[in-house]
Design goal:
The complex is a heterodimer. Chain A has helices at residues 3-13, 34-52, 54-59, 97-118, 139-154, 171-176, 191-206, 218-221, and strands spanning 19-26, 60-68, 70-79, 126-131, 159-164, 184-186, 225-226. Chain A is α/β, with parallel strands linked by helices. Chain A has one domain: von Willebrand factor, type A domain (Rossmann fold), CATH 3.40.50.410. Chain A has a seven-stranded mixed beta sheet. The longest helix of chain A has 22 residues, at 97-118. Chain A starts with a helix and ends with a strand. In chain B, a hairpin with a 5-residue loop joins strand 5 and strand 6. In chain B, the strands form three sheets. Chain B has a six-stranded antiparallel beta sheet, covered by helices on one side. Helix content of chain B is 32%, strand content 11%. Chain B has helices at 2-11, 71-82, 123-129, 135-154, 214-229, 244-250, 270-275, 279-289, 304-319, 323-326, 368-378, 407-418; strands at residues 29-31, 37-46, 50-55, 60-64, 95-98, 104-109, 115-116, 167-169, 175-177, 346-348, 355-357. The radius of gyration of chain B is 25 Å and the shape is elongated. Classes of the chains: A alpha/beta, B alpha+beta.
């Protein structure tokens, strides 16, 4: 069965309100070595954790876009029931962050439309943006993606978690993507701690009701962020 | 209305934290008001407000997080205790628990076992947890739930926050109501609630400062029953609609009654689940959820006893085999096509083997559902078909066997399928 049918059929078979989460991850050449290994391990643990939570398994739809040389769709929005394996990343190339964010926003728009057409309710979508460097793709794409992201956040249609990795992460550009929430810097290479926190937050949201305010675990942030 | 609301909020003394200096842990001895003691055992589970522990009694103990022990909470638990409630499966407080420093830490209650209603909302999870269930089991579950709600209402208690996480199911007859410490009792409001279970008249109101009426709650009861009958769907989820909240405010109900329909029923099999319900149940839901319906306002909504009678009749029809006579598929939880109608000829679809209305098949005899799936797998997005009066050109056969339905209804049914 092709993916398109599967993803639309899933919306028809499973009416659970969806929690769309998109991971937009820097896989540029500078991530080579420990950073990319830890990132792979963190995302794998994230998938494991979401899969092992019965509610999140049928509610959370995870997608992944990487930017290393070019923007690449590694996984489109789907519950982990239908897409159980975490993608593997390899570090390579430049840092086209704007292109990747635009790709993520396009995928999100398409999926939101599918929710709407099928009559499936959804929670405010999340984008996790992680980088260890400075964007060096097209300036126009970068500005356009920042504008789109900020507009959606200001209309309360998106939540973004911008996270810098290491000393060279451009925290200023992350801040431009996030009008409401200051970007955070990852403690060392604590990807595992971050993704454990993220999966817990996803579980918490998937057990709430769309539209409700969900208090995220602020203490848990201390385990992975430099504060 | 506003004046009344202000009055209500003024009459409630401000809430304050009751400090706990000794956190209760397994092995600790706790005390009840009458001097009896209980020993905390292992932790059974954790939630947003606190944790539940085994004890050396048949009951379990809910122990609040220190910041959650407030004067309102203690007053409410005392009020619930004073009611002397005793009904199997309603896990109301049985005694307030204090630590050795005489600080309020939690309460003792009946233990709940089973799966949350939420697990019925997800088809794959439902089929895993309750593989043998038939429609009758869901109907019996509704009856069990309605008896409990009726008991609470009779005793002047409003559940307030009815939702899929505070009802736990072991069997259709063995059901537990949990998180009872939020119930509205003696003028102390239930401070929480969720959008899908909130009636239109209370949307966007602050639950901290209002008292719900039984009429308000009857909306939540109807939503719960609907979500169990059209298993996992909320009455106002709809395709191409506005937000769920706005649909509730507009009372834009997504399921049809006869020819009356907003044409926004969610895609998928949900229309089949709806179609197989008895007419008197559909009428009750339709008139509750649709603007202007006979039971659509706070004062006219059906109460738990009205629903109890209807569901008891439904169960009787199912268990006697009468209901399955017209269409055996009505006895299943997830029917895969519309309920069979009298006067319509059914033929088998060669692709899926399901029986289907002879008047709406393709010229190769393929049913609409298979045609739709074939189309979805061919195209990136399903094209919006052009529905012209001459649609028979595509769907071959003349409607010669259709005696009870007028052609317009069938045409609308087909259009509805594709939108």
């Amino acid at each position: 069965m092709n993916r398109n049918l599967l993803c639309i059929e899933d919306l028809e078979n499973n009416p659970s309100s969806r929690v769309p989460v998109c991971l937009v991850l820097d896989t540029s050449g500078s991530m080579e070595g420990d950073p990319i290994n830890e990132l792979n391990e963190g995302v794998r643990l994230f998938y494991d954790a979401v899969r092992s939570d019965e509610t999140a398994l049928y509610a959370a739809e995870i997608s992944v876009v990487t930017f290393g040389g070019f923007a690449s769709r590694q996984a489109d929005f789907s519950t982990l029931e239908h897409q159980p394996e975490a993608p593997q990343f390899y570090a390579n190339g430049g840092t086209p962050m704007g292109e990747a964010m635009n790709m993520a926003l396009d995928m999100l728009e398409k999926r939101k439309n599918e929710y709407k057409v099928s009559g499936v309710d959804y929670y405010q979508p999340w984008i996790v943006l992680m980088t260890d460097g400075m964007p060096n793709g097209s300036q126009a794409e970068l500005s356009r993606s920042i504008q789109r992201t900020c507009d959606m956040i200001n209309e309360r249609k998106l939540t973004i978690f911008p996270i810098g990795i290491g000393e060279d992460a451009d925290m200023d550009v992350l801040a431009r993507f996030s009008p409401k929430r200051s970007p955070l810097k990852l403690q060392g290479l604590n990807f595992k701690e971050f993704f454990a926190w993220l999966s817990k937050s996803v579980s918490k949201v998937s057990q709430s009701t769309p539209g409700d305010k969900v208090q995220l675990d602020a203490d848990g942030i201390k385990g992975w962020a430099e504060l | 209305m506003k004046v009344t609301l202000n009055k209500t909020s003024q009459s409630i003394a401000p809430d304050r934290n009751l400090p706990v200096t000794l956190i209760a842990k397994p092995g600790h001895t706790l005390h009840m008001q009458n001097g009896q003691s209980v020993i905390l055992g292992t932790m059974l589970g954790q939630g947003g407000e606190g944790s539940v522990f085994k004890t050396n009694t048949p009951y379990v103990a809910k122990i609040y997080k220190p910041e959650k022990t407030t004067s309102h909470r203690m007053t409410k638990i005392q009020a619930l205790l004073d009611k002397g409630l005793d009904f199997p499966g309603i896990c109301v407080p049985k005694a307030i628990l204090y630590n050795s420093k005489k600080e309020f830490v939690g309460y003792l209650m009946q233990k709940a076992e089973g799966e949350k209603v939420r697990s019925l909302y997800m088809k794959p999870l439902f089929m895993k947890k309750f593989p043998s269930w038939k429609k009758r089991d869901l109907v019996e579950l509704c009856i069990t739930i309605l008896k409990k709600i009726g008991y609470l209402h009779k005793n002047g208690i409003i559940l307030g926050d009815i939702n899929p996480d505070n009802i736990v199911i072991k069997t259709p007859k063995d059901v537990f109501f949990v998180d009872c410490d939020s119930y509205q009792v003696d003028g102390i409001p239930c401070p929480v609630g969720t959008i899908p279970f909130t009636p239109p008249e209370l949307q966007n109101k602050n639950y901290n400062s209002i008292l719900r009426t039984v009429g308000n709650e009857n909306f939540a009861v109807a939503v719960l029953l609907f979500s169990l009958m059209v298993t996992g769907q909320m009455p106002y989820n709809q395709k191409n609609g506005e937000s769920a909240q706005q649909n509730i405010i507009n009372m834009d109900f997504s399921y049809p009654l006869g020819e009356a329909s907003n044409k926004k029923t969610p895609a998928g099999q949900w229309r089949f689940l709806w179609s197989h319900l008895p007419r008197f149940i559909k009428e009750a839901f339709y008139n509750t959820f649709n603007k202007g319906g006979t039971y659509s306002t706070e004062s006219t909504r059906l109460n738990s006893y009205d629903w109890f009678k209807k569901f008891s009749e439904y169960l009787r029809l199912l268990d006697s085999g009468k209901y399955g006579e017209q269409d055996k598929m009505s006895e299943q939880v997830y029917p895969t096509r519309f309920k069979k109608q009298k006067g319509v000829t059914y033929v088998k679809c060669p692709q899926c083997g399901e029986e289907t209305d002879e008047s709406i098949i393709s010229k190769y005899g393929i049913c609409m559902e298979c045609l739709r799936k074939n189309r979805l797998s061919r195209h990136q997005r399903p094209p919006i078909p052009q529905h012209k009066p001459g649609y028979q050109g595509t769907f071959g056969r003349p409607a010669r066997t259709r005696t009870s339905q007028n052609p317009l209804v069938t045409a609308l049914k087909i259009i509805d399928w594709f939108i």
